[in-house]
Every structure is written in structure tokens, then in C-alpha cells.
Amino acid sequence: MELRQLRYFVAIVDHGSLSRAALVLHVAQPALTQQLRALEEELGARLLHRSAQGVLSTDAGKVFYEHAQAILKQVADARAAVTQSADRPSGGVTLGLPHSISGALALPLLRAARAAYPEITLQLTEEISGNLTEQLKSGRLNLAVLFDDAPREHFAATALVEEDLMFVCRAGSSLAPPDAGVSLAQALDAPLILPAQQQGVRPLIEQAARRAGLVLENVIEINSIAILKSALLADMGATLLPVAPLQEEIASGALAAWPLLEPGLARRVTLCSSRNIPLTNAAAAIGKLVRQVTEELCAAGTWRGARLIAA
Description:
Layout: H1 3-15, H2 18-25, H3 29-43, E1 48-51, E2 54-57, H4 59-83, E3 91-98, H5 99-116, E4 120-127, H6 129-138, E5 143-147, E6 155-164, E7 166-170, E8 182-183, H7 184-189, E9 192-194, H8 202-211, E10 219-221, H9 225-233, E11 239-241, H10 247-252, E12 255-261, E13 266-274, H11 281-300, E14 306-308
Parallel strand pairs: 3-4, 3-5, 8-12, 9-10
Antiparallel strand pairs: 1-2, 5-13, 6-13, 6-14, 7-11, 7-12
Helix pairs in contact: 1-2, 1-4, 5-11
GO biological process, one term: regulation of DNA-templated transcription initiation
Pfam families: HTH_1, LysR_substrate
InterPro entries: LysR_HTH_N, LysR_subst-bd, WH-like_DNA-bd_sf, WH_DNA-bd_sf
């Protein structure tokens, strides 16, 4: 198996046809077809379905595509690590952000990276936390912002902030609590809109409920922040979340938030990298910048509900 075969395969999948991939790669289409056939023979599996409309990945092809992407990224990172300067880091860095963090961190970080490191190409990927974990393990991400349930045996982690969970519902909703705060038992009595199990804050809430002898039921599971906001605004239920992804709606008065009491819950946000794949100078520089931007956001109160964890 050769690196060029991996590049050819990824290009074919990305462009959806052999002919378009051949044009982009500047390779004759018969040669591209030959390399693809050799790759499928070596793997003993068909990777693509071919038709007049183009190509689609088979199940085996989808699995191989993820590995091929990770291998090509690690090769590019290894090349960059050898050639780039520690004083002027350059090259590509891919950072993964959970949906619920990107609203607070993504734009300030992009601005800071462009100002401090113009020769670094920073690519941000927004995913649910479970997907980010797998992508960081495989090497498709250089860095990822994850929560305190990240598998520590695989990652080196730097703590960033703690975010308090709050009870949030539509302003004026019948679900709004009468007092200045709400207990966990009161919160769990309401119909809750939460991420699916093992995603985001859900494990934290499930664990707290078990410790308190409570049951989490009557849950609407939504993994998309945008759809969750729409459901809250439609008064389909309340949620238990940090306020950062909802701060625009809270500031406008469309949503209202109350602190969670008895007990309060907070999640720890960490910056993670793989223990097995060394960071390039560029990735290390972006990692330091994430910490710096986080400190600035907390000092300014821009990252609402977040408490900086001392370095």
C-alpha cells in the first residue's frame, strides 16, 4: 500500500467521481482506476460503488476513508514538524470544538490566531464530543476541547474552565421556577431537552441523579444546539446546560436561566491532545493560544458562567 494510493482514494471520495479526481490530481483517469483497483485487491474489499452519476463509498470504503485521512494528516504533520521553525510556526492545525463551546471560543480564537500566527492555517471542526474523542484518537485532529469525561489514558489534558449548569427555559414559561434557583429534584420533574446519553452534559446529569436517588425521565434527546434552542423557544421543555451556547437568547430575553442548587453541577472543560502523536510546533502554539484566549474571555466576563481553572 502506498501513500499515493491513499491520496488518490481520498480525492475520489471527496470529489465524488474518478474523472473530477483525475483532473484535480493531474493524473490520467485510467491510471487512477488502476491504482484504485490495486488498493481494493490488496484490502480484499470493494471500497466504492461506481455508477454513471459518480461514486459512493461502500461500508468498507467509509471505514477506510477515515483511516486514510488520519494517515495522510499524520504524514503532513510529521513533514511540517521537521521543516517548521519554533520561532515562526507554520502549517495546518485542526482543532475540534463541541457545539456547546464553539459559540464562546471559536471566533475569538480565530481572530487571535490570525493576529499572532499568520503562517498557521487553523481549521476548526465542530462536532458532538463523542465524535471529537474518536477523531483525536485516530489523529484526524491535532487538538480538541473536551469535557471532564475524556479518556485520560489516551490524552494529555490541560484544564481550561469550569462551567456551571443552569436551568433554562423560555421566558414566561409555566416551567419557570418560582424562586431564584432550582434544586436538582425540581429540575428533573420538568420535561427536559438534553443531549443523548453519553454526549455532552448528559453523563454528568445522570450521575448526579443516581447519587441523589432520583430518576431522569421524560427527556427529549437532541444533540444539535440549534434544534435544542428551537425546542426551548417553542416551550417544549427546559434544559440543564451551561449558558454559553444560549447567551444570545438569554441576553435578548427570549430565554431565562436559573442557577442549579442542591446540588450545583459544573463540567470541566479541557484542552486535549493525543499521548501517542507528537504535536507540531504549530499545534503547540495554538494550544497555548487556546489557554490565553480562554483567560481573556473569563477576565472580560465574555464566557458567561465559566470559571478559569488555574494553570
